[in-house]
C-alpha cells in the first residue's frame, strides 16, 4: 500500500483549478494547457494505481492531437495497450475533480480497494490450469503459463510516459511524473512518441512473447484462455508459413524484453517497431511472389500536420525506401508557417 502522507504532501503542489471540471472521454482529458497541471498530476496517480493493481505496466500519453497548439491533453493506456475501459472513465473523472488533497487520498484508497476486488473476481472466474493430454498440449500449457505469470515477468510495474511536440509537454510531463512517484511507482519516460507507438510500447512491455511471432490474433486479449490464441497461431503457421518471405536480416524475430533493461526499453522497443513495420511491408508486397520488392517509383505523400508524427516517421524513410516505398513527408513543422518536404534517401 502506498504512503498516504507522501501523497498528501506531494498533491499540495498541484491544487485543483477553480471552475474547471474536466471529463474523461474517448479523447481523454483535453483543455488549454495552463489548466491541466493538476489534472495531469492526478492522472499520474491513477495510472500508478492501475499498474499496482494489475501488476503490469500502464501508460500515459500527453497529447491533444489536432487541437490548437495552446491546448494539451492526456490519455491513459491499459496494460494490453488498449484505451481505458469506459466503466473506469467516471472514476478517473471523479478522482481528477477531487476537491482537495485529503479527498484525493480517500478516493485513492477506495479505488485501490474496489479495483483489487474486481481483479480478484476476474481471476477467480478464470482457471489457470490447462489439461495436457499429449506433447503438443503440454507445450501449449508451458507457453500459457509464461503469459499468465505476470508477477514473474514484471515484479515492479511502472508507468510509461510519452508526449508530443507541444511547448507545454515538459511542464505536464513533470506533473504526471510527480503523481506517479507520489504513489511509489516509477515513471519511465519514452520522450517523443505518437499515441499508437506508446500504446504499442505498453503492450510490448507486458506481453513480449506475443510479439515474437509474425501473426497475432487481434482478439487475443478478449479470450479467457490464451491457449485459444496459441492453437490458432500454430494452425495458421503450419498452413502458410512457407509462403511468407523471411523478415529483413536486421530485424530480430525476438521482441525486446522490458524486464531485462527497463531504462533502455523505450528506445529498444521503438527500434524493433520500425524494423518490424518495414519488414511487414516487404512481406506484404512479396506475398505470392519470389521476386524482390519493386523499385521505388511514385512517392506516398504524408501530411504530418506539423506534429510529432513527422519526427517519428523519419526513422522509417530509409527502411521503407529499401522495402520499395518512398515516403514524402509534408507539413513536418520544421519551417515556420511553411510546408517542408522530407523524402527517403536512395
From TrEMBL:
Question: Per its UniProt entry, which superkingdom is the organism in?
Answer: Eukaryota
Q: Which InterPro entries match?
A: A-D-PHexomutase_a/b/a-I, A-D-PHexomutase_a/b/a-I/II/III, A-D-PHexomutase_CS
List GO molecular-function terms, semicolon-separated. Answer: magnesium ion binding; phosphoacetylglucosamine mutase activity
Biological processes annotated in GO: carbohydrate metabolic process; UDP-N-acetylglucosamine biosynthetic process
Q: Which Pfam families match?
A: PGM_PMM_I (PF02878)
Which residues does the UniProt record annotate as the domain Alpha-D-phosphohexomutase alpha/beta/alpha? Answer: 54-102, 155-203
Family of the protein in this entry:
Belongs to the phosphohexose mutase family.
Q: What's the protein called, per UniProt? A: Alpha-D-phosphohexomutase alpha/beta/alpha domain-containing protein
Origin organism lineage: Eukaryota, Viridiplantae, Chlorophyta, core chlorophytes, Chlorophyceae
